[in-house]
Amino acid sequence: MGKTILVTGGLGYIGSHTVVELQNEGFDVVIIDDLSNTTIEVLDRITSITRTKPRFEQIDLKDKQAVQHFFKYYDIDGVIHFAASKAVGESVIEPLKYYENNIATLTYVLQEMTTNNVSNFIFSSSCTVYGQADELPITESAPPKPAESPYGATKRMGEIIIEDTTKATDLKAIALRYFNPVGAHESAKIGELPLGVPQNLVPFVVQTAAGIRKELSIFGDDYPTTDGTAVRDYIHVVDLAKAHIAALGRLLNNQNKKACEYFNIGTGKGSSVLEIVNAFEKSTGQKVPYKMAPRRAGDITAAYADTSLANKELNWKTELSLEDSLSSAWKWQETL
Ligand code: WQD
Question: Looking at residue 133, which CATH number applies to its domain?
């Protein structure tokens, strides 16, 4: 078998799509997931896509001893760390849950990696660290802004913890700052699991089209944008998954230039909320009833990536279109 990669949170939305791409590339994958925000069924669905069942350990990374035992038992060549709580609104209500689950667990994983000489680490970060950037498109040299939520704070804190660890140990790390992941695998066997009322735009649009939600509320139509609705960079989750493979290759081949590198992973194109609604209706033929509503607290006006650094240094670029993202999201919804 090829090199062994640990994927924490590997049964989650982005994690499961990354496991599929890792297996497609011949890596041997071990998944750790606590199943707090997914179901074990995703493991069989990954297997039905790749015909190779990843090894799986149900571990809560807050259990430091379990993390220690894992790294004693498994011989790991690299770690891709997705495991974290990610609901922005919930983090405002339960900050300590987010600091414990997103930060304490990160330190346990990094401690056991350094103890066991596992030196390749990829971190799931977010464009949320930029807040409302002063310049668009956003480059990796844009200064991080004060976080709008404890969730966003844990992403920037995580980056700082990793940077400090790479300076003090042999750890090599790449932090991928995701823009807005959307869509689902073409097989429609994995996708974003609808657990509770969707907080993110595309899952809500899809459930509205399916009649599960009565209508979409568009949060704000008075932003200084072409149509008054907020702009984001919506990237197909499979393109995002492939960026992790590219980053892993850079670390395994020791091409990374310094201890910790950052890459903005988006399409480089901004789309407004209304443009998403229209593109969804056009690519699926489904209607999405909506109404205008007040702005959502903490939202920024616009964010989209300058992807030139990732294009060049990771030799990676997006291959799937916004229509691919939206039609795959609908095809996934139809299986639910
Ligand atoms: C996108 C746009 C909303 C829902 C967050 C996190 C980020 C990452 C992705 C987790 C905004 C508008 C939304 C709705 C709407 N998180 N919207 N009606 O806020 O850019 O990013 O999710 O992994 O770190 O910050 O994404 O999809 O919530 O919102 O009008 O019912 O859609 O106001 O303008 P966001 P989003």
Answer: 3.40.50.720
DSSP 273: H
216-179-155 Cα angle (round to 5): 110
Is residue 16 within 8 Å of 188, Cβ to Cβ?
A: no
What is the value of ipTM here, to two decimals? 0.97
Task: Mark whether 98 is an active-site residue.
Answer: no
**Is residue 99 in a domain?**
yes
Task: Report how far ligand 1's centroid is from the alpha carbon of 40 (Å).
Answer: 27
Residue-wise pLDDT for 288-330, tens only, equals 999 999 999 999 999 999 999 999 999 999 999 999 999 999 9
Handedness of CA 251, 256, 258, 260 (dihedral sign): negative
What Å distances lie between residue 209 and 159, 185, 200, 204, CA to CA?
37, 19, 15, 9
Q: Model confidence over 89-115: pLDDT tens digits?
A: 999 999 999 999 999 999 999 999 999
Q: Strand, coil or helix: what is 257? A: coil
Whose alpha carbon is nearest atom 31 of ligand 1? Answer: 201
Bridge partners of residue 297, in order along the sequence: none
Residue 191 within any structural domain of the chain: no
Let me know if residue 54 belongs to a domain.
yes
Binning the chain into helix, strand and coil, the percentages to the nearest 5 are 40, 20, 40
Its domain, for residue 247, covers: 4-182+234-266
Query: Whose alpha carbon is nearest atom 30 of ligand 1?
Result: 218
Task: Write the single-letter amino acid at 36.
Answer: S
Structurally, how many domains does the chain consist of?
A: 1
The size of the chain, in residues, is 336
253: number of CA atoms within 13 Å, CB side?
9
- The rounded radius of gyration (Å) of the Cα atoms in the chain is 19
| Main-chain dihedrals φ then ψ at residue 333, nearest 5 degrees | -60, -35
In a domain, 190, yes or no: no
Identify the helix (H) or strand (E) that includes residue 61: none
Task: Tokens for 132, please give them.
Answer: 């409302």
Name the residue of 201, 240, 290, 295 to mutate for ligand 1: max ligand atoms within 8 A of Cβ: 201
Q: How far apart are CA 239 and CA 266, in angstroms?
A: 9
122 near 78, Cβ under 8 Å?
A: yes
